[in-house]
Amino acid sequence: MAHTYPIGTPGQPWTHTERLQWLNHTKIKRSYSQQVLQKLDALHEQFDAVQYGALPIDSERYPLWAFKTRHWDSTKPIALITGGVHGYETSGVHGAIRFLENKASHYSSKFNIVVAPCVSPWGYETINRWNPNAIDPNRSFYVNSPSEECAYLLQFLSELEGEILLHVDLHETTDTDEQEFRPALAARDGKDYIPGSVPDGFYLVGDTELPQPEFQRHIIDAVKQVTHIAPADANGNIIGSPVVQHGVINYATKALFLCAGMTNAQYVTTTEVYPDSANATDEQCNAAQVAAVTSALEFVMGQHNL
C-alpha cells in the first residue's frame, strides 16, 4: 500500500536535511519536569538517586536519572527495570515510578533494584518514538551507540557491582504506531509502508534465544487480573510475530539491539500495554506495568530460593 509521508521523497532514504526537517517539525507537548522529575524528587530520600547523564539537545531540561535501592550488596542479584525507552509510551514511565513509590522497597532485601524510569525524556515531551536525530533508541543498544539515551544507560549499567539476573523493560503499543511512527520509519528508510494492526490488550515480548516460557506465563497470569491480554490475530500473530503462548511473542533481542537485550540477564521480558483500548484506563495501564514487575520478581525469588 502506497503511503505518502510529508517529509522526504518516496523511495529515497532520508539525508541529514530530512532528519533536520523532521526535528523542526516536532513540538513539545508535555512537561518532563512537571510530570516526571517532580515525582522523582520525592524519591531521593528513599533511594540512591544517580544522574547518569543528560541529553545534549538541552542538558538542563533533560537530565537522566536512575534509582538504586540502598545498602547495595554485590552478593545479591540485580533486578533492572527500564521505562520510557520510547518516550511516548506513557505507562512505561509512570508504571516504573509507581513501582518505585509503592513496591521497590519491599523487594530490596532480596535484590539490588535499579530503575531507570524515563530513558528518553525528549521523546517523552514530544510524545515521540525516536530521539532528536530520528534514531530509535530501542534499536540502538550497542557499543558506540549513536543514541545518547542508550550510550549513557549502557555506561551506567557497566559500572554496577553484581550480576543482573532480571530485566523488565516497560513499553506500550499505541494506535500512533500505525498512524505515525511506522509510516515515518518507512519514509526515513526509503521503503514502502505496509500497514499492520495494533493488538488490543497487554502482551509480552520474550527473547528468542532465552525465551523462559514459565517466567512469561507467570507474568501474564498476574497481569490478566488487572487488564485484558491481547489475542492473536487471524494468522496466529501479534505485530507480525507468532504467538508462542497466550499473550507472548519472542524477538531476537540482542540481534535487534533492543533494550531488553542489552544485558546478559537470565530472565528478560518486554511489556506491551495498549493504552488506546476502549477496555483499559490509564490507571489500569500503570497498574499492569507494576503487576508485571512484581510478578517477575516473585517468580525469580521462587526459582532461586531468595
Describe the structure.
This protein is of the alpha/beta class. The chain has a single domain (16-303), classed as 3-Layer(aba) Sandwich (Aminopeptidase), CATH 3.40.630.10. It has helices at 16-25, 32-41, 90-102, 121-126, 148-158, 176-188, 213-223, 282-303; strands at 48-54, 63-68, 78-83, 112-116, 164-172, 203-207, 237-238, 241-242, 248-251, 267-273. An 8-stranded mixed sheet has the order 1-2-4-3-5-10-6-9, sandwiched between helices. Strands 7-8 form a two-stranded antiparallel ribbon. The longest helix is centred in the C-terminal third of the chain and has 22 residues, at 282-303.
Give the strand line-up of the largest sheet.
1-2-4-3-5-10-6-9
| Main beta-sheet strand count, sense and barrel state | 8 strands, mixed
Order of helices and strands: HHEEEHEHHEHEHEEEEH
In quaternary terms, these chains amount to single chain
Q: Using DSSP, what is the number of strands?
A: 10
Q: Work out the strand percent.
A: 15-25%
CATH class: Alpha Beta
Helix content: 25-40%
The count of helical stretches stands at 8
What key attributes describe this structure?
two-stranded antiparallel ribbon, globular, alpha/beta, 8-stranded mixed sheet, 306 residues, Aminopeptidase
Task: Give the topology, please.
Blueprint lengths: L15 H10 L6 H10 L6 E7 L8 E6 L9 E6 L6 H13 L9 E5 L4 H6 L21 H11 L5 E9 L3 H13 L14 E5 L5 H11 L13 E2 L2 E2 L5 E4 L15 E7 L8 H22 L3
